[in-house]
Amino acid sequence: MLQPTGVTRVWLPLPVVNSEYQRTLGDGGRATPRHASVTDGSTGEHVYAEFAEGEAAPVVELTSRFRTQNRAIDWSKKVAATADPAELRMWTQPTDLMPTDGIVKVTADEITRARRRM
Question: Are 59 and 31 a contacting pair, CB within 8 Å?
Answer without folding.
Answer: yes
